[in-house]
Design a protein that fits this description.
about 160 residues, alpha+beta, PH-domain like, 2 domains, elongated
Length: about 160
């Protein structure tokens, strides 16, 4: 699961950390860049000894650098996520996927967990409603993960109440 529950510093407090799934590991990144460099180098072998080699090599290097930057930027963005902190008197959601991060707070007694099977931007749209606002939670999760998380959130809120 791309989310994990941990116990907080205070008794009875819990924290939920959600992160998008990352399919490209650091080792996979190295292998991908290495394979891309090798595939760029293969056609360049026919140009060895000619002046055109340097011209084509510059563009191949620029392309490889652009791929490196794009994947690195995507990896940094995937490191962000959402953190939900639940205590007896306060529930706080920090949505760090946006820049700057957005924060929502409410009294857990009045918070409801809503799971809409249809009609939302994603299947099984998961929201928390309280303090006059409704906030989205885990849009990057799969529908089955959102269903499981909704049940866990309902149980955690019932335990706090």
């Amino acid at each position: 699961m791309p989310y994990i529950w941990t116990s907080g510093p205070d008794e009875g407090s819990r924290a939920l950390t959600l992160r998008p799934h990352r399919s490209l590991t650091p080792r996979g990144f190295v292998l991908f860049i290495g394979a891309t460099a090798a595939l760029f180098a293969l056609p360049l072998l026919s140009l060895v000894g000619g002046a055109a080699l340097w011209f084509v090599l510059a563009f191949a290097g620029l392309c490889l650098w652009a791929v490196w930057i794009a994947i690195a930027r995507n990896s940094r963005a995937a490191g962000r996520g959402e953190v939900l902190t639940l205590t007896r008197d306060r529930i706080t959601l920090i949505h760090a996927l946006a820049d700057p991060p957005r924060t929502w707070e409410a009294n857990p007694y009045w918070v409801t967990v809503q799971l809409r099977p249809e009609g939302g931007p994603v299947a099984h749209y998961l929201t928390l409603k309280g303090n006059g606002r409704e906030v989205e939670l885990g849009a990057f999760l799969s529908p089955d993960e959102r269903k499981a998380l909704a049940d866990e959130l309902r149980a955690a809120l019932a335990e706090v109440r």
